[in-house]
Amino acid sequence: MIGFWESILLTVITAATPLLIAALGELIVEKSGVLNLGVEGMMAVGASTGFAVATLTDSSSIGVLAGIAAGMALSLIFALVTLGFAANQVAAGLALTILGLGLAGLIGAKFVGTSRIAIPPIHIPGLSDLPGIGKLVFGQSPFFYLSVVLAVGVAWFLRRTRAGLSLRSIGENHASAHALGLKVLRTRLLAILFGGACAGLAGAYLSLVYTPFWSPGMTAGRGWIALALVVFASWLPLRVFLGAYLFGAATILQMHAQAASMGLPSQALSAFPYIATIVALVLISMRRVGATPAPGSLGTAFVPPR
Amino acid sequence: MNIMVKVAGAAALALGLAGAASAQEKLKIGFIYVGPVGDHGWTYQHDQGRKAIEAAFPGKVETTFIESVPEADSERSIEQLARTGHKLIFTTSFGFMEPTLKVAAKYPNINFEHATGYKRAKNVATYSGKFHEGRYVQGVIAGKMTKTNTIGYVASFPIPEVVAGINAFMLGAQSVNPNVKVKIVWAATWFDPGKEADAAKALLDQGADIITQHTDSPAPLQQAEARGKFAFGQASDMIRFAPKGQLTAIIDDWAPYYVERARVQLEGKWQSQDVWDGFAKGKVKMAPYTNMPDDVKKLAQDTEEAIKSGKFNPFKCPVFDQSGKEVKCEGNGALSDGQILSMNYYVKGIDDKLPK
Which of A8, A15, A222 minimises the CB distance to B205? Predict the structure, then answer.
């Protein structure tokens, strides 16, 4: 029985990890006052580039790095348009998704129908073989550890560092932050690049670990779910973590409920992860007084006064 | 996202510029796909059919496709093809049925072909494959191969085609193994590799040692391979994704039908019809039987041959529904095509409730 629950937990982790990574990236972007709706596109490009490069170089690590770089490159276009030309962020983000999905198909076209061995989970002799917790704590995919470090790191950065404070104040009110001498555009550029890197990484996870092949459309809306998680988590990193895992757990558990033929309608079960996540995160936000609202300058362009 | 792809040979373009082909306009044929052409499954096979048309009538036809069209929002994509001069339009998923009929009513001079549906009109023909024949063979193999007597089924949506597939699979499995059980997970998608993989993992975790799927990506097969279990490919031969795990695959071969329909359209003889072929006409084929002992292989081949020659029908009477009640036999010693195409119940032995 322990083996059964452990196995479920491992599946939940693999489903939650890409959502968590992409959502943490977007969280930083939005905290700096920029709304980038192009997560789905950047994720797709990360997935196809990651798989393509991994196949060409026969190295999954280089593939992952290429996926990150591809996500960043795409986000750089977004930065150029929204920061450089102060274009509408919603329109630019949607365009980025369309561009990204098309570009991903083009990059991956030659690699459709091929598959790779998934990047294996780490294995520490002795520790990973411990009964019960061994595999859960010491035998996960490297991406899992990275996502946890990322979640803690992002929370610590925003809460405890001076740079994090600057980023938050720029997101709250860019005019005041500018008057205080903070570098609004430079900070936002770095935030957007970080978001691109995370989306690219999440994409590479999809095509190199989760289901190790490339196919157009394989992101299947995960970028949009990541975006929604950021909002429903009230822009708080640890709540994003909670939301990603709740969504992952609900997705996997409803499948187990179906497989065990518990007689519930499968349509309702399929909707369950979405409903559960929204309800849970909304309830958490309602209960606490003074829940963090959206960053004040979110979605508005900043043009430095001359 | 909808990506419109024009496929026109450079040579044809050069001819057009020279004015040589201006006397006879090329026939434009359009395709609406539910998934990406790169799904390596359902849509990929339809696109092979489209390419076969191009190859069969060089210089005479021009084909266009729109891929990854959401079923609920397909009307405008179909209309887009109708407005841009396409005279024959194939819509290749069950959910395109109503939108196809709606657009067809507006454009009486354009002919439409809808795959896997059951509603026709003067300018709407339907066509499908008897995939359940292949599912029965898969069931026979799975019933023989399973050690846990539990088979995992990753399904998409509870439509007749899928339900008939589950039933045929179960009847095949029961024919060789009376203790066999099937566990079903509805992924509520045709194509989402991550979700399909999760469904396969859930089924494997609950004791299934063979996975079969009615969703379009190779992800469930790949999961079975990774865990050293067996599975079946979907819509096309997916052996590359699971060299040790694929037992066989149902292959949909649309090419001969598509070429034939393009030919009658070119000759001006197109008529609305309903075509439903299986093994016998080669529309449904089985990939090579691999990773199984010789006796199972022999049994699978014999079953395929019997269905192909018409000696055996997967839905031969009597068929019992879940409650044990005998289903009325409307065909010739077997359920009629109409009964199979509108199947909305599970057969006896499936321990689950059909979502409706």
Answer: A8
Question: Domain for residue A250, yes or no?
Answer: no
Fold of B4-129: Rossmann fold (3.40.50)
What is the CATH topology of the domain spanning B131-251+283-341? Rossmann fold (3.40.50)
Interface of B with A in 176-235 (CB under 8 A): 183-189, 191-199, 201-203, 205-206, 208, 217-219, 222, 226
Which of A78-82, A135-139, A284-288 is least confident? A284-288
Tokens representing residue A36 in the block = 């980038």
Per-residue pLDDT tens for B317-334? Answer: 999 999 999 999 999 899
Point out the residue among B67, B188, B208 whose CB comes nearest to the CB of A270. B188
Structural domain for A88, as ranges = 2-115+126-220
How does strand B61-66 pair with strand B111-115?
unpaired
- Within a domain: residue A235? no
Is the confidence metric ipTM above 0.95 for this complex? no
Cis peptide, bond prior to residue B243, ω within 30 of zero: no
The three-class DSSP label of residue B64 is strand
What is the domain count for chain A?
1
By CA distance, what is A17's nearest residue in B?
Answer: B194
Nearest to B93 by CA among B235, B240, B238: B235
- A275 domain-assigned: no
